[in-house]
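Researcher: Please translate sequence to structure tokens.
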Amino acid sequence: MLKTEHEALVNHGGLKGIIMCQYRAKYALIFLLLATSGLMFLLRNILTLEKLGWQNSSRAAFAQMRPAPPYQTHTFCSHLGLEPTPDEGLEDRYLLKAIAWPKLPARPAPAPLYQTSDPVHSLLTILPSKGQKEWHVGDQLEALVHMHDFQGSPKRHGGDFLVARLHSPVLGAGVAGKVVDHLNGSYSALFPLLWGGSAQVTITMVHSSEAVAVLQRLREERPNRVFFKSLFRSGELSQTTTCIPCLPPNYPQQPLCNYTNLHTGEPWYCLKPELLSCDTRINHVMGGYEKPLFTNQEALLFQSRINIKVIIHTSGPDRINVLPQKIDETELES
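Model: Translation complete:
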């Protein structure tokens, strides 16, 4: 009889344990569903608040980072920038004067290729040493360049970009020359004679005056011809947008991130991502070039081995022999 009662108690306890396990599993499943739903609801609210916060913060950042009133410069971005100090303004004027380039004569239409500077038809002449028949270390060498067009006609104005170099392949020595534009199609190249022995003159036409005029126009009218890209990222959300260093006055009204330097006024803008703030920008790379930059006629001014970086040949010898430095007779007497 005791055995029977014991078995009954054991069976009753086992049944009760099974029922409790079933209840626990049921409640655990319900709790898991509730926790998942609550987490999803919380994340949704966070994303909504962040989106609203990003929009407000980007607008606030753009308003706070807007540059101070501009000062006049000779660039397309003259409507941007900070007011310079008197010393900075003076330095700006000196720099602009130093890089000023001669302008081409006004004409109704761009010059055809055959009327532009041609380094092959142009001539380089080494001028004789002044007052003597030989050169010595410490003297100055002068060379004269006469520019001609593709028909062989002499040019009547300046503005060509020439680079002058005096060098000795044997000694491995070299020095840059100073090019003087006489604004009439002729140029002087001046070199200090710094070593004895052979010295060769090389003058290269980097760009014709007509090509320089095109580059000047692109600098003024197309400041954003080179564009950049930035990646914005927050968590798993990322987006790449275009960035430009100069924002034209007529730029389309789009949400922008303004990264203008508050101290120098140097402008920099990126298109704002749709769902990310301006603070989530993590990198910066070059995007490419706007195309086309040139017209078909302008493209003819930028042909390799024809009118870009072509050496101008001499009408006589292209090298001289430099003797040792003269010794002053008064020094010998003393």
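Researcher: Any highlights?
Model: Residues 224-292 form one domain.
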